[in-house]
Amino acid sequence: MLTQYGWSPELQDLFKPYAADGFVPGRIVVQHRGGYRLITEDGEVDARASGTLLRSAADDERPAAGDWVAIEARPGETTALVRHVLPRKTAFIRKASGPRGGAQVVAANVDVAFLVASLNADLNLRRLERYLATAYESGADPVVVLTKVDLMDDPSEAVAEVEAIAIGAPVLAVSSKTGQGLDAVAAHLPPGRTAVLLGSSGAGKSTLLNALAGEERMATAEIREDDARGRHTTTHRELVLLPSGGLILDTPGMRELGLWDAGAGVSTVFEDVEHLAGQCRFGDCTHTREPGCAVREAIEAGVLPVERLRAYEKLQAELAYERRRSDPQAAKDNRRLWASRHKAARAWIKQKRGIDDG
């Protein structure tokens, strides 16, 4: 049973210390507010995290869907206790909503992240850039899945726009209704490989999972006609074993995706912007008024869309804010950086005025 869900010799070696303490392995296949459902060698069991684990673990160290865990079986009890979380291979992490805004693990130990967006009025390139950055940061292989292709006469233009920001990630146009493109999605899910479905409500994640599973495994709903957006139908995270042997984790739609420590992911998604920035005359160029700005030159030449630069700056500002919030030294360094930029800008303006007056 465990092998079907991805158990491997490497995991067996990692688990030896826990086995010596009398714990048994399991994988979290359902995560909801009240606890977890796990797959073990003996089948499915319900479980909850131990108080010791919850008190000692940071937000991003607590059990999540897809995690391999060490559990304490309790004869005579209806639920087991999750005592330890095994080291993760990958983790898709976002900033949790709310005033506390800590790290939230959406999916753990997934090999591929299907970033699902619908080919309707709600298609948003800036949102996809966020998902791509977080997916690259997670360590999983991102694949963009554009659903409901059957609703468009010619999706080629929309697909090309997405490919332009995907930076090498596959972009698949599919229809769960007609079956178009489903084989291309399934090709990323050989036996034992785990994928996660990520996207906003109404993108068609649960419908796609049902199509791949060949049966109604998850509830679905129609999108609203007035704004092409959907409502939440998946209320928990669930890992499903497909007939092909692949595994796919469905997640509730996310209204927002706050970045969490995703600097490397942002750099990967915006490598074109950072490459141009490296060619600017000044290392601290703000890409506004400085002479010799390669980024501004690319925008004026039509090589770089200004919207893409603005998106990059927005994500960088978001990451910088989080760093300053958690690191006083980072806040101090940021103030020094902006002070030097303002000083350089004033000197350049003064010099330019002198040249013009002369």
Helix residue percentage: 25-40%
Q: What is the strand tally?
A: 13
Q: What's the main sheet like?
A: 5 strands, mixed, barrel
Structural class: alpha/beta
Instruction: Name the poorly predicted regions.
Output: 223-230
- Give the second-level CATH assignment, the architecture of the largest domain: 3-Layer(aba) Sandwich
- Number of continuous helical runs: 11
Q: Over the alpha carbons, how many angstroms does the gyration radius reach?
A: 24 Å
The mean pLDDT is 87
Number of domains: 3
Morphology call: globular
What's the order of the H and E elements?
HEEEHEEEEEHEHEHEHEEHHHHH
Please name the CATH topology of the largest domain. Answer: Rossmann fold
CATH superfamily of the largest domain: P-loop containing nucleotide triphosphate hydrolases
